[in-house]
Amino acid sequence: MSEQKKKKYNEKEFLSVIPEAMPAQDDQQSIPLRETVFLTLRKLILTGKLDPGERLTEVRLGKILGTSRTPIREAIRKLEIEGLVTITPGSGARVAKITEGDLQDVMEVRSTLDQLCARLASQRISEEDKKELIKANETFEYSTKFGNEQEIAESDVHFHEVITRAAGNRRLDQVMNGMADTIYRFRYEYIRDDLHYEELIMEHRAICRAILDRDPEQAAAAAKDHIDRQHEFILGQLRKSKSEK
Amino acid sequence: MSEQKKKKYNEKEFLSVIPEAMPAQDDQQSIPLRETVFLTLRKLILTGKLDPGERLTEVRLGKILGTSRTPIREAIRKLEIEGLVTITPGSGARVAKITEGDLQDVMEVRSTLDQLCARLASQRISEEDKKELIKANETFEYSTKFGNEQEIAESDVHFHEVITRAAGNRRLDQVMNGMADTIYRFRYEYIRDDLHYEELIMEHRAICRAILDRDPEQAAAAAKDHIDRQHEFILGQLRKSKSEK
DNA sequence: GATGATAAAAATGTATGGATAAGAAAAAAA
DNA sequence: TTTTTTTCTTATCCATACATTTTTATCATC
Fold it and tell me: CA Rg, chain B, in Å?
């Protein structure tokens, strides 16, 4: 039946989706090609353009993106370590699947580290970053009212990025970024319904206020509250999405 | 003066140190060469055989390890993400330097996550892992009495690995491993004096007991106590080592 | 129709070559 | 002697080629 078509179908869709995502970097010489490929593939995975489990073939990707296999290989290796791709030696790479267990794992770690971020940020935030934080919060609130889902998601991510950066701990920043990718995928994959933006706004405000007031414990508590609710909500969505199938 | 000699000198020492570290993997076919190279270089960096700041040239490493440049490149990319190597595009790779700031960063994050590990482990540890934990603890105590520094360090690392694994959170495991590398480098670089093994033993016992008793809060507290002391001690060593120069 | 063996196709793993750019050495100028 | 410029070596980056392994397709058999 359609079983026969399936292969060609995937290929077609794949082909149609990629080229526009790959920026022609003729002007910017200094960026290595592998980095461009990496960012391109990463974005495609994060936004669900490449489905979990889909195979990432070097030659095919090379043809599509117009490069040789070498930069593709290196990009895929990097994606593997970011957890977005799983490689089985000798066989090849696939887009990593995201399971409920993964979410659980990430959320447990993130809950703890978000608290740490908030605590440290409230102790160390610079005057400059304070302005940035206020702005990020305003942008978020604005986008919940007038923006589309993508804009909301991005402003949300940015809000948390500012806090993470304000914590002034590179390692923490790095770890948080790695987990943010996974969470982003979940959101993109499962969350279609309207979030309860009013709650989110209140929670963000609470975190914001505590950090600006330089109140570490309050900040940590607000962060914990936020992430726990988030976790619960995403889990709910996940189960709803499952039961629909 | 000896400025002129310096380059050649490094080269020589480098050449002499590597080959014995690279296992001849003629028997085991299934492991990719890049993985072997990766592990080899990783070990050399962790144990200080390759100095911080030292340049890692593809061709040279290829000659020394007897492989082409391709596996070397891929191993280096992986090392970069692990934080053991810094790459400047177009220029090449160097062994990453470790600063006091790095230690501070890692310790802050690790303090939090160690508590999480202990807490989760005490809730989730299996009967099998309980035995493993007890054994790891005994091995550690034994090695502090009869082993050399390397053995002590390794049994210490293993003790914490068991706990981390018992926590049953892959993401946590992964993050902890990444940080363990950095800490290991510090220990190897700066810690020559005898540690206060009696204290360490007592602290390990406390953690062990709390986990076996399935007491999350106690476990977290014991872990925090342990890591904070460790941090303090390493910092002290670091400053002592600095003032000696 | 399902299952298993065999052969063809394709993909990965590794090696190597050419183009470009960074870095070192040498030469020229101050 | 120091600084600047130029030349030349060397390394990375990407592309490509070959060898081996894995996957897929085909066909025979139960």
Answer: 20
Angle in degrees, CA A166, A167, A171, rounded to 5 = 120
CB contact under 8 Å between B74 and A77, yes or no, is: yes
Q: Spell out the domain ranges in chain A.
A: 6-95, 100-244
User: What fold does the segment set A100-244 form as a domain?
Assistant: Four Helix Bundle (Hemerythrin (Met), subunit A) (1.20.120)
pLDDT single digits (tens) A98-126: 888 998 999 999 999 999 999 999 999 99
Q: What is the mean pLDDT of chain B?
A: 85
Binning pLDDT at 50, 70 and 90, where does residue A27 land?
Answer: very low
**Pairwise CB contact (< 8 Å): B120 & A108:** yes
Protein-contacted bases of chain C (C-beta within 7 A):
10-17, 21-23, 25
Rounded Cα distance between A190 and A67, Å, is: 33
Residue B150 confidence (pLDDT) above 50: yes
DSSP calls for chain A:
-TTTTHHHHHHHHHHHHSGGGS---SS--SS-HHHHHHHHHHHHHHTTSS-TT-EE-HHHHHHHHTS-HHHHHHHHHHHHHHTSEEEETTTEEEEPP--HHHHHHHHHHHHHHHHHHHHHHHHH--HHHHHHHHHHHHHHHHHHHHS-HHHHHHHHHHHHHHHHHHTT-HHHHHHHHHHHHHHHHHHHHH--SPP-HHHHHHHHHHHHHHHHTT-HHHHHHHHHHHHHHHHHHHHHHHHHHHHH-
Sign of the CA dihedral running A91, A96, A101, A102 = positive
Q: Which residues pair with A86 in a beta bridge?
A: A94
**Portion 185-244 of A in contact with B at CB < 8 A:** none
Whether residue B172 and residue A109 make contact (CB cut-off 8 A), yes or no, is yes
CATH number listed for the domain at residues B6-95: 1.10.10.10
**The model's pTM:** 0.86
> Smallest Cα–Cα separation from A70: which of B61, B71, B90?
B71
- Which residue is associated with the tokens 């400025």? B3
A28 CB within 8 Å of a chain B CB: no
Residue B73 forms contact with A (CB below 8 Å)? yes
Confidence of residue A35 (pLDDT cuts 50, 70, 90): very high
CA A38 to chain centre: 14
CA distance B76 to B4: 28
